[in-house]
Automatic annotation (TrEMBL):
The keyword Membrane applies. This is Integral membrane protein. GO terms for cellular component: plasma membrane. It is a multi-pass membrane protein. GO terms for molecular function: transmembrane transporter activity.
Amino acid sequence: MSARPGELFYQDLLETCLTAGELMIEGGSEMYRVEDTMVRIAKSAGEPDPRVFVVPTGVFMSLDHGNYCQSTLVHERNINLELVDRINSLSRAFADKKITLQEVKKEVTKMAKGDYPNFPIWLQTIGAAILSATLMVLFMNNYDWVDFPAAAIVGAIGFLSFYYFKRFTNVKFLAELVAALIMTVIAAGLVQLFPQMIIDHILTGALMPLVPGLALTNALRDLFKGDILSGMVKICEALLTAFALGGGVGIVLKFLGA
């Protein structure tokens, strides 16, 4: 028995909102922004009272019209603010009646399949190298310029290690631990080859691309907005990342007796 057109419309609306919310969380958005975008899409489609509940691991939504209630799980959380901006722009264009719901659904479905802007890995690696070297200069009050290229090299290798190891494990913190181990071993080797280098300076810069700065910022914003559950989850996630990075460095330094 085929569904009535009204049912199909509200089913499409629900699927569109859930997919958009899932993509925004995967891109590193704050929870209140995800809720705002989903509610904006639903209200612009004529739903007077959409109910949305968002946590870092899942999105829940119900609509009065059609008596629909569905949820979707979020398994990946990365940093892709271009993806967040793309979804947010789609919702605003739909609210301004510039595009239809079907066009919004088509675009978010394409993005859910991986068709969204993302920097190639070689460019991300160059960015990690530049970030490592420049942040070493920013954070270290006393340093030697010989540490500048070393921090860039170690930071780039550490980022590549994290990127590729994460593809073989579902445990993000294990990938971060391995990356920290590799970075510390390489930094210690460089210091042995060039005694004028300081390992503390190199590692301070090299670890920066993996430090969960965005997660901590979003966690505080969620807490200030009253999203206590999401804020605490993100803080715990950021602390686990910090422990993984610190543990990787500490294990190697302890083993080497540094």
